[in-house]
Write a structure and sequence with these properties.
The chain has 264 residues and is α/β, with parallel strands linked by helices. It has 10 helices and 9 strands. Helices cover 43% and strands 17% of the residues. The strands form 2 sheets. The protein has a 6-stranded mixed beta sheet with strand order 5-6-7-3-8-9. A 3-stranded antiparallel beta sheet has the order 2-1-4, with helices on one face.
């Protein structure tokens, strides 16, 4: 059973952006009956725009704790009134993960750390040392708790490990989870770990995942629907028939054929 049954964008607009990107033009009565639905296609086909529009409509929280006021969500806000979603639930819960938000979160913590300590340094000579030391302890405590929001200090992990840690912490209950190009933060081995996390979660919870990706590894999750987006349409496609899979497999089977022009 899925939580969202169908998705449709009904609009009379054909131009300008975002109405002219394939994922928006061809999002017509999509059958989302699977617990895992992939949106795949070349850069510029609108995978992320479609996912952001759904996230905005559902008002799912972000990894970095920000809201939908970012400039990157302007297209999603514009499209939200034309997005038609058929639910099987009354109230949605879940999360929206974007690799870029993960980087923004870590950078914001580091910037706040530097700002607090620079401000305290400027007080030296004007404020008694024991008061500055007390303020430093408070500032360090604030930064520590910012880093510890996801259950453990993220500095103890690699980039990919920290990303998986956050996903593990946030995907603990039934809900709708949107992942935008998670492979950007993950090695092939960590992508397999993500597949395991999702599969184990779905054994215990009634949830649904929507994933925009370029990764044939992630697309291989059993029982997932793959919607391949091209300039001419959006079709449900078998893994082996997607362009991503065919190019990756062809390259790995015969890299010399793809690279021979470099030696010319």
């Amino acid at each position: 059973m899925s939580l969202i049954k169908t998705l449709n964008i009904e609009t009379t607009h054909e131009n300008p952006y975002p109405y002219n990107v394939p994922a928006i033009k061809f999002a017509k009565n999509l059958d989302l009956s699977s617990k895992i639905n992939f949106f795949v296609g070349d850069n510029g086909t609108g995978k992320s725009t479609l996912l952001e529009t759904l996230a905005f409509r559902l008002q799912l929280p972000h990894m970095d704790g920000s809201d939908y006021s970012k400039k990157s969500f302007e297209a999603a806000i514009k499209l939200s009134s034309e997005l038609q979603v058929e639910f099987k639930i009354l109230r949605t819960k879940g999360f929206f993960f974007r690799a870029e938000d993960f980087g923004d979160y870590l950078n914001s913590v580091n910037r706040e750390d530097a700002r607090l300590h620079n401000n305290l340094k400027s007080l030296e000579g004007n404020v008694p040392d024991h008061i500055i030391e007390e303020m430093k302890e408070n500032a360090n405590s604030q930064i520590y708790h910012m880093r510890k929001n996801y259950g453990q200090e993220l500095d103890a992990f690699s980039h990919g490990e920290a990303y998986l840690k956050i996903i593990h912490e946030k995907i603990r209950k039934p809900g709708i989870y949107l992942l935008d190009e998670p492979e950007a933060a993950l090695s092939p081995a960590k992508q397999l770990a993500l597949i395991y996390q999702i599969s184990e979660h779905l054994k215990e919870h009634l949830s649904q995942f929507f994933i925009a990706t370029h990764s044939p590894i992630l697309m291989a999750i059993p029982e997932g629907n793959i919607f391949e987006i091209t300039d001419t349409g959006m079709e449900k496609t078998a893994l082996e028939d997607t362009e991503h899979y065919r190019i990756t497999k062809g390259f790995l089977n015969n890299p010399e054929m793809y690279l021979r022009h470099l030696a010319e």
